[in-house]
Write a structure and sequence with these properties.
Distance between the termini: 53 Å
Largest sheet: 7 strands, parallel
Oligomer: single chain
Number of helices: 9
Radius of gyration: 17 Å
Structural class: alpha/beta
CATH superfamily: P-loop containing nucleotide triphosphate hydrolases
Amino acid sequence: MHKTCDVMMEKNILEENSKLARKNAELFKDHNVRAFNILGAIGSGKTTVIEKMAEGMADTRVGAIAGDLSGKDDYIRFKNRGIPAVAVNTGKDCHLDAHYVSHALEKLPLDDMDILFIENVGNLICPVDFPLGTEMSVVIISVTEGDDMIRKHPLIFAQSEISVLNKVDLAEIMEVDIGVIESDFNKINPHGKLIKTDARKGKGLEELSRMLKIN
């Protein structure tokens, strides 16, 4: 009986999230905003990738939602670069959901925006079941996390059309075999694309922009 209640409760939560995600998607469409869910562990370089991509889109109006358990460090980084942004602190929740995003959207000037980057909470497990209404999800990992990150988190990579392997300049120092990471990704998501980047120097971000069709 207890298990049945747990399953029903989880089903209801996921169904409600899906409804709200569809509403978010409709809102994006109404305002002609292309939204992307940026996922990855803490320290993978999500914020840097967003900053550098925004920097390279001088004629594109970019906004951001900075999701974290607590704090406003990433939000401040976006604001300092002149990017309209909202900070969302989830407390104990290890992911953003469509409800969090819907409230954040109320605070953003969507009519003055072309692209919205939603930086999810630093986690590769919890966000899998919670779509936000975005056009696409991009998963970012870095070589500093080891060469087993993809096979340890197969679900999120299987669902992502585009993934990013960041900080490739540190591969030799970290003694990480990029070939192993690429092989794992191709096994889990043979139809996806893994883009190698050094976001601090902007390397690989042009290819990412082309894949997202935002340049």
